[in-house]
Amino acid sequence: MPKIRELLANNVTWAKQKTEVDPKFFERLANQQKPEYLWIGCADSRVPANEIVGMDPGELFVHRNVANQVIQTDFNCLAVVEYAVTQLKVKHILVVGHYGCGGVAAAMESVRHGLVDHWLHPIKDVYREHKSELVDLPAPAQFDRMCELNVMEQVHNLAKNYIIQEAWAKGQQLAIHGWIYSIKDGLARDLGVTIRGMDGLDPIYQFGPDTESDD
After folding, report:
1. 0.85 surpassed by pTM
2. Which candidate in 5, 22, 28, 44 is catalytic?
3. What pLDDT score was predicted for residue 140?
4. Is residue 177 annotated as a catalytic residue, yes or no?
């Protein structure tokens, strides 16, 4: 287990390697941040966002939480989304889950885990809604499928938000993608649930024009 001082030493080595390959790397990084992608992923330490897609710092805006959730009352996540969409003008939002997700596994159990149970409660709803599909699957396949269904649910949750819908209403190019990552082989797979506009959203979740008075 590395000590804190060793982590700082590793940082010095990393920075040196970067400047040896590209002397102006940090100069460019300090001057601008213009990523085209927002990554919403799991906090699991085995899922390093930039490394998975081969991107350097500054090329991928990242938000991570337990089980890659998009919850309408999570102002941390929504603040990241708002900044990425309205200020950085990202063109793609990647909602990325992974097989073997401990958060999904915990949500599938009927035991207490502490405060995290409140956070994971929406995943139980996903299980209930898809129980007819899941019930006959063997345990490993059921777990894998739940990890996929959770990602798919979060893609739609994000599309339901007014921040995203306002961007679409203004003609902003913005797509939400759902991916699943396998820790076993390091490969990410597109789940085919990309939403690029209001047409991909049930009408009940679509916000109309802002009707508030200017008075």
Report:
1. yes
2. 44
3. 96
4. no
